[in-house]
Design goal:
231 residues, Tetracycline Repressor, domain 2, DNA-binding, 11 helices, homodimer, mainly alpha, Arc Repressor Mutant, subunit A
Chain lengths: 231, 231
Amino acid sequence: MAAKGNGGQGKRSQRIESAAQAGKKPGGEPSLSLERIVATAVELLDAEGIDGLKMRRLADRLGAGVMSLYWHVANKEEVFDLALDAVFAYRAPPQRIEPEDWRRDVVHMLEDWRAIMLRHPWSASLLPRRALGANVLGRLETMSEVLSRAGVADADMNVAIWSLWNYVLGATVTRASFALSHADQAAGQKRLSALSERYPTIERTRLLLDSDWDGTFRKGLDVLLDGLPRG
Amino acid sequence: MAAKGNGGQGKRSQRIESAAQAGKKPGGEPSLSLERIVATAVELLDAEGIDGLKMRRLADRLGAGVMSLYWHVANKEEVFDLALDAVFAYRAPPQRIEPEDWRRDVVHMLEDWRAIMLRHPWSASLLPRRALGANVLGRLETMSEVLSRAGVADADMNVAIWSLWNYVLGATVTRASFALSHADQAAGQKRLSALSERYPTIERTRLLLDSDWDGTFRKGLDVLLDGLPRG
DNA sequence: ACCTGAACACCGTTCAAGT
DNA sequence: ACCTGAACACCGTTCAAGT
């Protein structure tokens, strides 16, 4: 259903070892490449959001014709897939060998994950649809390893992983879109006071005004980690 | 930014008490109405998914011209907003007065919430973007009341509510899209075995094959509820 | 008050070529 | 191997009318 995972190279796999991997024009211009396309797509998504990524716009930024993209990429879907996974590449190796402090590792990994998604707000809403990129799977693998070393039995592993995943994803998706839709706080306030008599408890606890997202995230995460079944 | 909340009636609020609320043609045809539009939009979304909702298609189903929709509705965004909130209307009053068994109430409410989103998979991905519909707010209010009666202090309420919200939303979004993208299990299996040596822990725990979604959801939820700070 | 068709601006992608 | 312009099918919405 999704585009075949053939690396996105060539039109219907007519990639037959290629004559020469010239790569660059003599003129000096970098020419088009998958890497440039993906990097520029991420830029565009960061700048304009998920609806701002248009093939024509992407080509413009790359100084190419629209249809040039289609040699490197099967369709727009594939651009999304590649941009998403690109964002989840590791920077520093998370392999700190302090086997005793697993909890610090887990929190660090999840906060890094969340930070990435907040830096690229489009990624949170894209992630659940295409969670099988190499970097995303790599992060799930590392996470599993850490939990395993921390004493989580294989039988409990999936509940642990999915609970954490669900929580982080939900928190980020919600935060990213609240930050957006409440950009104009004026309208938000008006809405809220009009609501106060219909939703007294929400009004009392200021549910929709509490913007300590980081603190709230961390506290809920602690609850989840406290409850992790470990041998 | 979002469409003004004027009930979606009339073009730029030229709703001036209206001459007569005729409503029906003498011919018998129900004619167009906001309710019919929203109900049909939900049908269409259920049948064709989020990308299947096109204004022309919606009009077709209603036996009307496309542009007729725009008298009742400002734009496509508003159709999404209304369809989303419509789906979260209450059926049975959840006001069971058993103050001692708050936990059963909470679990029931959250499973009902999740069931709705799984019945209308498009709703999960739409929800975070427009969480301020009346029915959604009503559910958050009821939830807060139950937790409050259960002994959760106001100071802890937002962490509790958001943790549960994040978890339910993340779980549903993930499940809905996995169910979709793995519709063809054949491709999924192939992908997985190709991956087995690179992601041994994932392979060992069968993370991506474990399809006991309901059990996993419930267990993670129990962890969260166990950890709820109550006076 | 309510509905409509024609038309516009825009977008992803196919095709048949170019070098 | 790599890039391109013209053209097609499609979609949300504006506009100027109809009743």
